[in-house]
Structures are given as C-alpha cells and as structure tokens.
C-alpha cells in the first residue's frame, strides 16, 4: 500500500511535463504572432520571437527549426478551428435559419480571436507552407473534409450529390471569405445585422438540406 502513492506521483510527472511543453509552445506561437504583426516576415528573427515570448532563442529552436515551421503551426491552428466550426454545424440535427444564424454567431465569436493569426498568414502568402503545390493540396484536402461534414449521413439533401457538394463548398467559402475580410481584413461593415445577411446567403446555398419555416424577421 505504502509504495503505490509514489508510483502514481511518478506516473503523473510526464503529463505535467507535456502540459508545460504545450504551454511553452503556445507562448512561442503567440510571441511570433505579435512580432509578425509588427514587422515584415523577412525582418523578423528568431531572437525577436524569443524576446516576445519571454523565452530563450534555444527554446524557440527546440520547438521550431525556423520561421516557416512557425507559420505552418499557425496555419494548422486555423485549419483546426475551421474543422471544429464546420463540425459544429454538421452536428446540428436539423438546419433551420435560426440554427444557422446561431451557429454563425458562435463562429464569429471563435473566429475573432484568430484574426491576428489570419493577418499574419495572409501577409506571409504561400511562404506559410513552403511551396504553392503543398499549400494547394492542403487547402483542397481541408475543404473536401468540410464538404463531407456538411453532406454526409445522416444529413438529407434534396439535391443530386454533385449539387449538394457544390452548395456545401460555396457555403463554406462564403463564410470563410466574409469572416476573413470582416474580422481579419478590417472591412467596414455598415449594415445593422451583418450576421443576419450572412445567414441569408448561407441558408440559400444550404436550402436543399434545410428544414422548418423561414424565420427571418419581417
């Protein structure tokens, strides 16, 4: 009995170390976002990132060999968020306009903190993945996944499969482009209800899979 507690404590140590490593990695990425947002990519050094993150240069290199790998990690953040956001919509049992609007409001709330990262990646361009072919392939694979989320079982579409896939892709691109331009690009939205207008556009594209009445305010 007396020997079990130390064993449990010893077994807990790796998880604590892993959590420390995760938090340190996040600090490095947050520092990188701050520096990339203030200076051009070419001018940023690993020393700059270390200073902004409050760690040593050796610590930065322990997690990332260079700036390209940092940009790749930031891009992975965006893809992970998009995967979660579209997964949330796919998990809604029945799509009504009220449901889509509520989902979009949640997407805006989650996308807004990602705006600085998106600005950094936009400024970096294709550098984020090293070459155009790799960037294209990753984008295609990600969007194929989002389309499958929105068109897969048990979702019922009153449209041929090819049309359902195109509508789902167009809805995804509508959301991505508007939120990116608005939240990250600083587009001056002047309408009283930008999320409501976006919901109208998305619902139009998803119409063959929508259920329930049109609950737009009259």
Automatic annotation (TrEMBL):
It comes from Actinomadura verrucosospora. Residues 45-64 bind DNA. GO terms for molecular function: DNA-binding transcription factor activity; transcription cis-regulatory region binding. Keywords: DNA-binding, Transcription, Transcription regulation. It holds the Pfam family TetR_N. The lineage of its organism: Bacteria, Bacillati, Actinomycetota, Actinomycetes, Streptosporangiales. Gene3D superfamilies: Tetracycline Repressor, domain 2 (1.10.357.10). It comes from the Bacteria. This is Tetr family transcriptional regulator. Residues 22-82 form the HTH tetR-type domain. SUPFAM superfamilies: Homeodomain-like.
């Amino acid at each position: 009995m007396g020997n079990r507690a130390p064993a449990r404590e010893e077994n807990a140590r790796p998880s604590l170390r892993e959590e420390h490593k995760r938090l340190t990695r996040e600090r490095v990425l947050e520092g990188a976002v701050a520096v990339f947002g203030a200076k051009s990519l070419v001018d940023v050094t690993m020393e700059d990132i270390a200073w902004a993150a409050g760690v040593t240069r050796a610590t930065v290199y322990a997690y990332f060999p260079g700036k390209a790998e940092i940009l790749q990690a930031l891009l992975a953040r965006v893809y992970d968020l998009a995967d979660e956001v579209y997964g949330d919509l796919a998990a809604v049992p029945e799509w009504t306009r009220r449901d889509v609007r509520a989902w979009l409001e949640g997407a805006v709330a989650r996308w807004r903190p990602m705006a600085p990262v998106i600005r950094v990646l936009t400024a970096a361009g294709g550098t984020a993945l090293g070459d155009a072919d790799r960037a294209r392939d990753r984008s295609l694979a990600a969007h194929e996944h989002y389309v499958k989320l929105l068109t897969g079982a048990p979702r019922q579409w009153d449209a041929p499969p090819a049309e359902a896939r195109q509508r789902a892709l167009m809805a995804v691109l509508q959301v991505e482009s508007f939120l990116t331009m608005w939240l990250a690009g600083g587009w001056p939205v002047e309408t009283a209800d930008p999320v409501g207008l976006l919901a109208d556009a998305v619902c139009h594209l998803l119409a063959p899979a929508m259920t329930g009445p049109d609950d737009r305010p009259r």
